[in-house]
Design brief:
Length: about 70
């Protein structure tokens, strides 16, 4: 009886490990896909904001100088 039980555990262990590996691979794949979609949405949102800002005209009081000659004065 003990030998049968021992062989059953030995046979089931690889099956359980294989199942666990597939579950982990699925979780990593799903998380990566979700992160990809979120980054794509953030990029599209940023480009829409940039286009809206360009359409509204140049900003007054921009933190960047207009040219390098203004730094010398």
């Amino acid at each position: 009886m003990q030998a049968l039980l021992g062989s059953l555990v030995v046979l089931e262990l690889p099956v359980l490990l294989r199942c666990l590996c597939w579950q982990l691979a699925y979780l990593v794949t799903w998380t990566t896909c979700l992160a990809s979609h979120l980054l794509q949405a953030a990029f599209e949102h940023t480009t829409r904001l940039a286009r809206a800002q360009e359409a509204s005209g140049p900003l007054s009081g921009s933190p960047l100088p207009a040219s390098s000659s203004t730094l010398e004065a």
